[in-house]
Design a protein that fits this description.
It is a single chain. Helix 3 packs antiparallel against helix 4 and helix 14 crosses helix 17. The N terminus and C terminus are likely disordered. The relative contact order is 0.09. It is built from 20 helices and eight strands. The protein folds into three domains: about 80 residues, Gyrase A, domain 2 (2-Layer Sandwich), CATH 3.30.1360.60; about 160 residues, no CATH class; about 180 residues, no CATH class.
Length: about 500
């Protein structure tokens, strides 16, 4: 996010911080809930977009106790409230706008229920979700995710190359090329701990290269001459979890040194102490502990599919969309990466990808059920290609979530798709992904299975069809109430003539 522009010194009173500037006081001065199309916030500012700027009573807004300033002249306004206050006001204001939008949609004439109205309702829901998700725990998960997200392009590229190398080996084609492709695919994975360490230090306030240097200890071949807890260490032991812990420790040690070491000695002492302390702790503790955790994750994933694949798939496929909305899915990124490093693929991602299939099925059902609402149908048509490729946000926030019940029935579709893939995994047809990031149809090139690529593609493809079908059936039967169906299906003369 770009830094906020400086506040004008005469743009509002500075006293009585936090008193009076509640959502109930702000709302009428902004033209009412119906005049707001979006509500977001940063650390100090409430950012709103209004339909009619002339309806905003700017003078009264500036005079409101607790308002520290106003930035912006047109439809986009920034109201400076200060830290703490804005975090409380933004979700409260978003709830007012969301409630007013929902009430207006319920009581308005049928022709007002358009894709634009749904999009505005979805934007308000997204703003409210973001405001509610600003907790320390979720912020920590977001930072962990930021460590791995930059690595996704390399994971995808190397995963596809690895799949191509495996295909050539299985078909005995171009035998001289397969080893070269394997080298291209494996180079990054053999050093992924270094990249994780680099990004971890960068994210948590350390020097990135020091984080990478400490994490490189994990993959150094000479660690097999070191013993920890009575056992010889193995190069790569602990993997990405060990690298993350090592670099996080290095960042803390470095910051501690920066505060205490004299500036004249900092360039020599701080890097040395950081590498020495964090490196020794990594060798004699973190590598062993992270290795045990990584092994446990792999064993648990195998046990889960072998003993409760159908049930586990139903739960994971059904709950993934709500997890995404709560920001909790970010905790799965290190688990996926650990499984890829330990086993060559993550068996969880194909199951979780079924949530997107349920969303596509739900959207198709809405398209069929709303033959007269050209606005919503146009939105579904434009968002469907992205949905098929696993990018579900346009369908979620533009269609299913604002309508409410279709979001739930989409989760039902994801649950049945996940149960299908999980059941086949329980029966021995496991399918995994060699990289994270893509889903939907985009996941096909990254699939890997215990019985070959063809079988893995067939299992995953059948799971997508099951998710589409279940999401469609559940939404067609239960996704819209009679009243909603009547209102959404009302004729829109202006649209039909356009």
């Amino acid at each position: 996010m770009a830094p906020d522009p400086p506040d004008a010194p005469d743009d509002g009173p500075r006293g009585e911080r936090g008193r009076g500037a509640g959502a109930a006081a702000l709302l009428p001065l902004l033209g009412g809930a119906g005049n707001l199309t979006s509500v977001t916030n940063c650390m100090t500012r409430l950012r709103v977009t209004v339909r009619d700027p002339s309806a905003v009573r700017r003078d009264e807004l500036r005079a409101l106790p607790g308002v520290l300033g106003i930035v912006g002249d047109g439809a986009a306004l920034q109201i400076v409230l200060g830290p703490g206050t804005v975090a409380k006001v933004a979700p409260e204001l978003a709830r007012h706008v969301n409630a007013a939008t929902a009430a207006g949609a319920a009581g308005a004439a049928p022709e007002t229920v358009t894709a634009e109205a749904l999009a505005e309702r979805g934007a308000a829901l997204r703003a409210e979700r973001r405001a509610r998700n600003a907790t320390p725990a979720k912020e920590f998960l977001r930072r962990i995710a930021q460590i791995f997200v930059p690595l996704i392009p390399a994971l995808i590229g190397c995963g596809i190359v690895a799949g191509l190398a495996g295909l050539l080996s299985n078909l005995h084609w171009l035998p001289a090329l397969a080893p070269a492709l394997t080298a291209c695919a494996s180079g990054f994975m053999s050093l992924i701990a270094v990249f994780v360490g680099y990004n971890t230090a960068k994210e948590f306030g350390g020097t990135p290269v020091l984080g990478g240097a400490v994490a490189a200890i994990i993959v150094f071949p000479g660690v097999d001459r070191v013993s920890a807890f009575g056992e010889k260490l193995v190069p790569g032991q602990g993997g990405v979890l060990g690298a993350l812990a090592a670099a996080l420790l290095a960042a803390h040690v470095e910051r501690w040194c920066r505060r205490r070491v004299p500036e004249a000695l900092d360039v020599l002492v701080t890097p040395t102490v950081t590498v020495l302390v964090a490196g020794l702790v990594t060798l004699y503790g973190l590598m062993y502990a992270a290795g045990e955790v990584a092994t446990a994750i792999g064993r648990f994933a195998d046990w889960l599919l072998a003993n409760g694949g159908a049930a586990a798939g139903f739960v994971l496929g059904g709950l993934f969309l709500p997890l995404v909305m709560l920001g909790l899915h970010q905790a799965l990124i290190p688990i996926h990466t650990t499984l890829i490093q330990e086993q060559g693929s993550t068996v969880l991602l194909p199951i979780l990808a079924m949530a997107g299939a349920g969303q596509v099925g739900a959207a198709l059902a809405l398209y069929v059920r709303l033959p007269h609402n050209t606005s919503v149908r146009r939105t579904i048509r434009s968002a469907m290609p992205a949905g098929l490729l696993g990018i579900g946000e346009p369908l979620i926030y533009g269609v299913s979530l604002p309508l409410g019940r279709p979001f739930v029935t989409a989760c039902v579709g994801g649950a049945f798709g996940g149960a299908f893939v999980g059941l086949l995994g329980q029966l021995g047809d496991t399918v995994g992904s060699t990289a994270i990031g893509p889903s939907g149809w985009a996941l096909f090139p990254l699939l890997q299975g215990g019985h070959g690529l063809g079988r893995a593609v067939a299992v995953y493809g059948a799971g997508l069809l099951a998710g589409y079908a279940a999401g469609f059936a559940a939404t067609y039967a239960f996704g819209l109430s009679r009243r909603s169906l009547r209102e959404l299906n009302a004729e829109h003369p202006a649209e039909n003539n356009g």
